[in-house]
């Protein structure tokens, strides 16, 4: 069934507009005739545009504004209405107004957000609820924003670290392919002509010439291999075991693994800090932080750690079987809990791991750049050398 807009005149001569649902335009006309309406205009309504999801930066801005409003003492419902007026996207404006409407009807903030959990970060409703109950909503939102910014920066670091070498390798592949297709075949003809067809080419030269004859076969095979790898990679994402295998692969990579690991620990530390500030117990903070992380291995370890804490173990002993949480983290949290400095220690850990992540990313780029340049230069140099080696043989024959 489709929806049609119409303009019509009644039997009394009055203008009437509206919409009617029908299978097609003919059925719509028939239905309006049955209502004794003289149709002047009738057209199918346009399909509503699919709303885009809220961007990460847009949510961070919203969260900062909400923290400022709550710090100023403005009621949550009124603050949300004011924020909706300043929202740039219609999606964000509608979302904020819907939450405000639920609050005005008496629905708790955590339930109002939970109804729209796809549009908000994990545990956002719990943080808002704890902030309202403890009277520290502004502080909670500020801590959450710091966590989101660390997460965003860490993701950007990892993406940049992987993108740079990928771009350089692609450029090298294009250069080598161009040489093998356009230059080498012509050069081989010159060599055979100069030698009268009787020169036996060196092994390296013959290898490069053979490669130039099978370039497209190589790229077809390479494309099939990449397709198989991508499909297998996506299939791994369907199960927790597969996702843990992907994480182990990333962790095993030189430099990239260290960036990946420290980035995860920075986000985990920030999230634990937010949960502790929200009034959660240590075991609940660990479990919820693990659930909100993007790491399947971390979720698994956090579930074990939370279970041990609930049984009365201290944090250091409970974390001995964790593979993804380092002993330094365990010792620092244990010490912070004993000295009533847990929040400060978690914030320090988050800053330390974030700093290590950014430092490792800089080191990786500094090392990868000359290595990749040397690699590309070595490949091109090998091809040039392979083409000039026969020249030496020709010169010796002529002499």
Mind sketching the topology for me?
Elements: E1 2-9, E2 15-22, H1 25-34, E3 38-44, H2 56-71, H3 76-86, H4 90-104, H5 109-114, H6 124-134, H7 137-194, H8 203-213, H9 215-236, H10 240-252, H11 256-277, H12 282-292, H13 296-310, H14 315-318, H15 327-338, H16 342-398
Antiparallel strand pairs: 1-2, 1-3
Helix pairs in contact: 2-3, 2-7, 3-4, 6-7, 7-8, 7-11, 7-16, 8-16, 10-11, 11-12, 11-16, 12-13, 15-16
What can be said about this structure in brief?
By secondary structure, the chain is mainly α. The protein is 74% helix and 6% strand. The chain has helices at residues 25-34, 56-71, 76-86, 90-104, 109-114, 124-134, 137-194, 203-213, 215-236, 240-252, 256-277, 282-292, 296-310, 315-318, 327-338, 342-398, and strands at residues 2-9, 15-22, 38-44.
Classify the beta-strand content into a percent band.
5-15%
What would the average pLDDT be, to the nearest integer? 77
Compute the number of helices: 16
Rg, nearest Å: 32 Å
In N-to-C order, the SSE pattern is: EEHEHHHHHHHHHHHHHHH
Describe what this molecule looks like in 3D.
The chain is mainly alpha-helical. The chain has 3 domains: 2-44; 58-120, no CATH class; 142-399, Receptor-associated Protein (Up-down Bundle). Helices cover 74% and strands 6% of the residues. The protein contains 16 helices and 3 strands. It has a 3-stranded antiparallel β-sheet with strand order 2-1-3, covered by helices on one side.
